[in-house]
């Protein structure tokens, strides 16, 4: 009786690395999102995890373009900042290294004058 050995299976190509939000970052983003939903400002969100950027998109209604995009770009970590809030028209509203600081531009929308 001979024992036949099989060659090792070829290694599957590694999936390309993706940028994603970690648990703490999602906690900060979803906390703000929950407050804005309770205020009636936002209704839906979507997330995209790509090779060079992670995007959290915020919608007023599900069938329209996002009001805001919260982006995480590790390539900009040493330059302009890892996080950015981008408006509907593509304008960068705030960019920086600290997510909570960057999201303050959206928290201002909760402050309304009392009549």
Question: What does this 3D model show about the protein?
Answer:
There is one protein chain. By secondary structure, the protein is an alpha+beta fold. The chain has one domain (23-109). Helices cover 22% and strands 23% of the residues. The chain has two helices and five strands. The chain has helices at residues 23-38, 99-107; strands at residues 44-49, 54-59, 68-72, 83-87, 92-96. A five-stranded antiparallel beta sheet has the order 1-2-3-4-5. Strand 1 and strand 2 form a beta hairpin. Helix 1 (23-38) packs parallel to helix 2. The longest helix has 16 residues, at 23-38. The termini are far apart.
Total helices: the number is 2
N-to-C order of helices and strands:
HEEEEEH
Give the N-to-C terminal Cα separation.
93 Å
Structural domain tally: 1
Molecular shape: elongated
Which short descriptors sum up this protein?
single chain, 115 residues, alpha+beta, 5 strands, 22% helix
Short description:
With 115 residues, the chain is an alpha+beta fold.
Blueprint (SSEs and pairs):
Blueprint: H1 23-38, E1 44-49, E2 54-59, E3 68-72, E4 83-87, E5 92-96, H2 99-107
Antiparallel strand pairs: 1-2, 2-3, 3-4, 4-5
Helix pairs in contact: 1-2
